[in-house]
Amino acid sequence: MTDMIEDPVLPAAFVPTPTREFNAASANRSAARQLIRPALKLVRSTDDKSAAGPAIPIPIPPLPIAFGSRALIYKQDPSVTEIGLRRVLLRGLFGIGPSNNRIHLAGVPPVAPNSMNDFVQAPDTAAFDAVHTFSIVHLALTMCQRAVGAVIKWQWNSGANTDPIKVFPHAGVTMNAFYSRNEKALKFFFFNKPGAPTPAPVIFTCRSLDIVAHECGHAVLDSLKPGWLSGTGNPQTGALHESFGDLVAIFLALSQLDQAEALIVQTKGNLHNKNFLSDLAEQFGLALGRDNGLRNADNDKKLSQVTSEVHDLSQVFTGGIYDILADIFLLERNLGVTGEDEALTLVKCAQYVFRLVLRAIHAAPATNATFANVVNQMLVIAAADGKPVGYRNAIRNQFTAREVVVSPTPLTQDVSDDDVFEAVDHPFLTVKENGLQDRSGCCGTMRLREHQFDERYLQEELDELQGGIGGEDDPHQQFDHAEAAE
Ligand SMILES: [Zn+2]
């Protein structure tokens, strides 16, 4: 039985505005308005200048439904102090936990909403971690659902099965985080910072927006493309899974107006300038066994420059999508008097590019999908959306430069509707000798045994066992037996 956490004492800075008093006054005003609904409000006719002119009715629009709870989240993670925390408004009805029909927390004390139905908690507490993790999963799922314009079930959901995903913010001590289809769970672990003097600070993977969004991306993609998680298919299929997790993290950050504005200010609108979005989370990347951070989106890697290792390979696709975002942003940006704020343009472009990617992935083959499959679907969908040809030129150019597809026409010409883009053959990008993808640089999801789906994974361990020492065959042990018998 876990203790319920209620009404924590918060530093003043963490109390959301409006204040309780403001809210109470606002409720009174709303109640007063309710009294005159659905009656019509009466105003004096503007045609009649006399004070005693005839009253005319005007309809009053219905009051908006204000279901929602406020929460605090890290814009990136606790190490990125310059951008820190932000408040978010989660739309919907949330129970104690927080929880809803799609997401249940586990392994941490449930958090109750305060009297304003908010879940604002002080950082560095289990209650904060619970709310933070729930919030990021909720926001990432919402973004993905909006991108496809439909509710996205979890992989195990069917007509009768509406089981939510179980989310463990404090799953245990290890440097890991993963999505598990068998356990219907997202698990986030914690560990002491490696190499730090005692007492080493504890790093919680659930406090990273990137990591939570990345793992949630695996869960969403496993629902849309259940055949993509197996470890025996084309390494590019596994790479699409890893890349999608990173893209969910990047585009979730870019769906937040203040993050988009911060990026514009930092880069002066050139997304290829060094920035927090493309090269952060190195500390957490290390935690997941990567030596180059969770994000390495702004890279120039071509398929001939990476290995078959799935995370290495994934950078080519992630980098291509980031480049396309940068190109489309430049196409749409309008700094003139008829234009709009750049940050707003960036948010819109990012929203479209993510929609494009997710729909293209959805339309790609059910198994063994390649980067070229998704790129071709992106070209088809961008054309069907009626987007300017510049969008398709950007898609073609970036993935031709990265040696993913071959363009039948020079890149100086516009893409034509008749163009067919063949995949570039890279015979060295194959599975390992045992027929499995090399996932050694991936996050925990891709290295879970259940997602390998193959006895050969276990055979690897048995083979290693053959080369081990000790056991009954060991001559030293036989000697010991002999001695013991005497
Ligand atoms: Zn991953």
Automatic annotation (TrEMBL):
<feature type="region of interest" description="Disordered">
    <location>
        <begin position="466"/>
        <end position="486"/>
    </location>
</feature>
<feature type="compositionally biased region" description="Basic and acidic residues">
    <location>
        <begin position="473"/>
        <end position="486"/>
    </location>
</feature>
<protein>
    <recommendedName>
        <fullName>Peptidase M4 domain-containing protein</fullName>
    </recommendedName>
</protein>
